[in-house]
Design brief:
The complex is a heterodimer of chains A (358) and B (575). By secondary structure, chain A is an all-alpha fold. Chain A is extended. Chain B has 575 residues and is an alpha/beta fold. Chain B folds into 2 domains: 262 residues, D-Maltodextrin-Binding Protein, domain 2 (3-Layer(aba) Sandwich); 178 residues, Periplasmic binding protein-like II (D-Maltodextrin-Binding Protein, domain 2), CATH 3.40.190. Chain B has 24 helices and 16 strands. The termini of chain B are far apart. The chains are: A mainly alpha (358), B alpha/beta (575). At the A-B interface, α5, α8, α9 and α15 of A face α1, β4, α4, α15 and α16 of B.
């Protein structure tokens, strides 16, 4: 790999030296801050040396995105297109590299992992880890249970969010400002885990499965998005329905909800991803392992292998192999990734719509 | 106005997010015992500052009790760590919990209503949650001494003093096993309260140096017996990398340390401490868990700095902290010549690192414990752990403290200890010449189901047993310990011998809280590691200035204040 570093050093020098000379002149002319020199000598080597090893992948993805853009636009690209392609590629690479790394690890054999030989391509291909994870009832049950929680949670959350947001658009709602403030207050100030635990204990909800759905079913942030979206729907539609004799519930069901599918889809995605990925509520509030969502299973799996201070305990218990843990990570991640493409088309519209009204 | 308000709110939200990140980090830490216990320090060899027990009346005529048997049935719940063992049985419901339930009924008429499982890695966050909400089990155990102390201050924890002293003549097993040393270990010198009971650490061995036995053989070298010889061996490893690691010579790591070099070189550092160091100095300068301010340590670090510059140390050591998986991977892949770690480190897991190494490199590959670091008196001094371990306490929501203390007494009975630690004869172990020897199974072997049924989820069942960490020596020998590992017993015997050779335990001085230490230990620990890492990595010529500047900063950050307070306390209590 020596040649690689030599090239990297060459690139760094080629950037740094002229830049330094120019900056020195600019500093002299008081057009630049002397700190710029330090930045050049820290930032440039950092970028060149540390990021150069992903350069190969970067170039590959870049050309792919480039091709796609050409196909989509069917025209000669301009400088702005280059920038967009560049930024897209950067984000894609940053997001996708860890996932590929985990996938490669889950498909490799344990010895190759131990020798740190696996980066983006599996070594010693095998599917044993997946076979084992898929045949382990603990994982499959947790997956099914989490899927149920996610679906039930989304339905409940969307219902609560809608009926919380809807009345707030009525100008004649008495005390609207107070209600608004009270709701928003909870977004900024929370009591913390211990009071929540005490509350749930007093409600006899600890270690029951609804505790995974009810306490966090309303996200104020999402409710504000929903409310803003409702504001965007012209009042005249509502008024015309009211003239035809529709009450508030009828207006909601017949006018607002049918017109809000895009925001409902978007918020469903938010809620679904949130429910799928969260484990802290289960960690603190549930001790019956039957109700453990998959992420908590995963969390325990990864955390229990972390080293305990060697001065404290010389104990370590057998855990799953690295390959198996990586397979479990994939197992828990992929299902939620699959819902993105289905909801994607609502996504952009949903997030930006209603954003002009506050 | 509206804009300002929204800015303010947004910044609150950001702060909240940041705070959440921060707390996650702090939850993640395992909170080493020594960091949590600010006033645990060595003192005189043998002399222990111990307040005398108070004159609580003994309760010979307790109407509830018939000897140690409750006339009316009592109910308690008990905490148990869950380590997610795989394979294994549920931590809170298995043959051993059934056994304990049965025994508690039979011996004391105590019914255990529940074993409450808590993930081992969550104790730092869960114990405060339980205590604050009043939902803790009746008998709790933790390493988190700080949490008990904090909640004791708020009246959430029972004082054990009246119990252990009042029923002293009925708690024979407890007093026999723990003795005054552990029972009064945490006694507040000012008011005599005992908020928690220290449990017993049966094996106080700390660290060993391990070396590749097969490499020594290949190069025809003897086991090193002095620091100089150790260095020579490292040089030989470095110079013969091509022979020892054909094709992988660039991966050679003659001596592996990590970013906590105070731990991974401790036995070596101890060789640089003058042999005539006084107990007072040990106490005053010994607040740091790696003893970085003991005299002589600087010379030890200088040696590491020289080795680093001579390519004898792991180049990447500063990138990997204690327990980093990668650091262990390279050991198992066979690239490491020598390293220092817990006394049984390469042998203890299942499969052990030793076994993985042999699988990867060949059957001749082996780590062996060596003991090369002599001090100025020719002794191979090394530190032993104190004999205390986890802490048992009863929250005030416990309405049966009396029954609870008898449950602890039951856990100190030798027969119960032996059964829980070894398991069932014929399933978990067999007797060979009177020595219990672990039976090894592979999945699918005949007897596998029975083995899983009797599977011991934690090392010698410490989670259920509570009272003891490591194998109880009553009637058993080092050989019994040796045969409980899945590597050659001779390696274990050698490791025990090395870890105990010239090793000294430094008893604990309970002078109450050292104010200057509270909240500072974590900061100082980080500073210490930074300072050591930097000092090791600089060119030899810059070592002195780097080390001295780092040490000055460390002392100014809080080290000096702690030393001053310790000196004051020592002079107050001991002179």
């Amino acid at each position: 790999m020596d040649w690689f570093y030599i090239i990297a050093a060459g690139i760094a020098a080629a950037i740094q030296i002229p830049w330094t000379v120019v900056t020195i002149f600019r500093v002299r002319d008081k057009k630049a801050n002397p700190w710029a020199l330090i930045v050049i000598w820290i930032v440039v080597p950092f970028l060149v040396y540390w990021l150069s090893f992903i350069l190969g992948v970067f170039i590959a993805v870049f050309s792919l995105v480039w091709q796609l853009l050409n196909i989509i636009y069917g025209k000669k690209p301009k400088a702005g297109d280059w920038m967009i392609a560049f930024i897209c590629t950067l984000i894609i690479v940053v997001c996708i590299l860890p996932l590929i790394n985990i996938l490669a690890r889950s498909l490799s054999d344990a010895e190759a992992l131990m020798r740190s030989e696996v980066f983006l391509w599996p070594k010693g291909w095998n599917f044993d880890a997946y076979k084992r994870v898929l045949s382990d009832a603990k994982f499959t049950w947790a997956l099914a249970w989490t899927a149920f929680l996610t679906v039930a949670g989304v339905v409940l959350s969307i219902f609560i969010t809608t009926i919380a947001a809807y009345p707030l658009i009525y100008d004649n709602l008495k005390g609207r400002a107070v209600i608004n403030t009270a709701i928003i207050f909870t977004m900024y100030f929370g009591a913390g885990t211990i009071p929540m635990y005490i509350l749930l204990n007093d409600l006899n909800m600890l270690d029951t499965w609804p505790v995974l759905l009810v306490p966090y079913c309303l996200s104020v942030f999402n409710m504000i998005i929903m409310r803003s979206f409702f504001y965007g729907i012209p009042d005249s539609l509502r008024e015309s329905a009211e003239i035809d004799g529709a009450g508030p519930v009828r207006v909601l069901v017949s006018i607002y909800i049918p017109l809000s599918t895009s925001v409902i889809a978007t918020l469903s995605l938010f809620y679904a991803v949130g429910r799928w990925n969260s484990y802290t509520d289960a960690l603190y509030f549930i001790s019956n392992k039957t109700y453990f969502p998959i992420q908590l299973l995963l969390y325990n799996l990864l955390k229990s292998l972390q080293s305990i201070d060697p001065a404290q305990e010389v104990v370590r218990t057998p855990g799953l192999s690295e390959t198996l843990r990586m397979a479990a990570v994939m197992f828990a991640t992929v299902p939620i990734l699959l819902i993105y493409p289905w909801l994607q088309r609502y996504f952009v519209a949903g997030v930006t719509l209603g954003s002009e009204k506050g | 106005m509206k804009k300002a308000l929204s800015l303010l709110l947004a910044s609150f939200m950001l702060l909240g997010l940041l705070a959440a990140c921060g707390s996650e980090n702090s939850d993640g830490g395992d909170g080493g015992l020594e960091d949590l216990r600010p006033s645990t320090t060595p003192s005189g060899d043998g002399t222990v500052a111990m307040p005398s027990p108070s004159d609580t009346e003994t309760t010979d005529d307790d109407p509830d009790l018939d000897g140690v048997f409750f006339k009316e049935r009592r109910q308690i719940s008990v905490e148990v760590f869950d380590r997610e063992t795989d394979p294994g049985s549920p931590a809170n419901n298995n043959v051993y919990t059934d056994f304990l339930k049965e025994k508690a009924l039979e011996l004391h008429n105590i019914e255990i209503t529940e074993y409450r499982a808590m993930p081992r890695h969550e104790e730092d966050s869960t114990i405060p949650l339980w205590l604050a909400s009043g939902t803790a089990p009746d008998v709790c155990i933790t390493y988190n001494y700080a949490a008990i102390q904090e909640y004791a201050g708020m009246g959430a924890v029972h004082d054990l003093e009246p119990l252990v002293h009042g029923y002293r003549d009925r708690l024979n097993h407890l007093w026999d096993l723990f003795g005054e040393y552990l029972i009064y270990y945490a006694r507040d010198p000012a008011n005599g309260h005992i908020w928690w009971m220290e449990t017993y650490k049966a094996d106080t061995s700390r660290l060993n140096t391990f070396m590749r036995e097969d490499w020594l053989k290949t190069l025809n070298l003897a086991e090193p017996n002095t620091i100089q010889e150790f260095e020579n061996v490292l040089i030989a490893f470095r110079d013969n990398a091509e022979t020892l690691l054909p094709g992988n010579a660039d991966k050679m790591i003659p001596f592996q340390v990590d970013s906590d070099p105070g731990w991974t070189t401790e036995n070596m550092m101890m060789a640089f401490v003058p042999s005539d160091i006084s107990m007072k100095d040990k106490y005053i300068y010994g607040f740091d868990d790696r003893k970085i301010t003991w005299p002589g340590i600087k010379e030890g670090v200088r040696m590491l700095n020289k080795w680093y510059n001579d390519d004898l140390l792991w180049n990447d050591f500063a990138l990997y902290g204690p327990g980093a998986k990668y650091a262990d991977d390279v050991k198992q892949a066979g690239y490491v010549g020598a390293f220092m770690q817990s006394w049984n480190y390469p042998y203890r897991d299942n499969p052990s690192y030793q076994a993985t190494l042999q699988q990867q490199v060949g059957p001749e590959a082996s780590f062996i414990a060596i003991d090369p670091f002599q001090n100025d008196a020719g002794k191979k001094y090394k530190r032993l752990s104190d004999s205390n371990d986890r802490k048992i306490f009863f929250p005030t929501t416990n309405k049966e403290p009396k029954a609870s203390i008898f449950y602890i007494d039951m856990l100190c009975r030798p027969d119960i200890i032996t059964y829980l630690q070894l398991g069932k004869e014929g399933v978990n172990y067999e007797l060979k010449d009177g020595v219990p020897t672990k039976i090894l199974y592979e999945a699918g072997d005949p007897g596998w189901d029975e083995y899983i049924k009797y599977f011991i989820n934690s090392h010698y069942n410490i989670d259920l047993l509570m009272s003891i960490n490591e194998l109880y020596e009553g009637g058993l020998t080092a050989l019994a310990q040796a045969t409980s590992y899945d590597v050659e017993p001779r390696l274990i015997l050698k490791a025990v011998e090395c870890a105990q050779n010239d090793a000294l335990q430094t008893p604990y001085h309970n002078f109450g809280t050292i104010e200057a230490e509270s909240g500072m230990m974590e900061v100082l620990k980080t500073k210490r590691n930074e300072m050591l890492n930097r000092s090791i990595k600089v060119p030899v010529a810059e070592f002195d200035s780097t080390f001295d500047a780092g040490m000055r900063e460390y002392m100014e950050t809080g080290g000096q204040a702690i030393q001053d307070e310790r000196r004051e306390k020592w002079e107050m209590y001991m002179e």
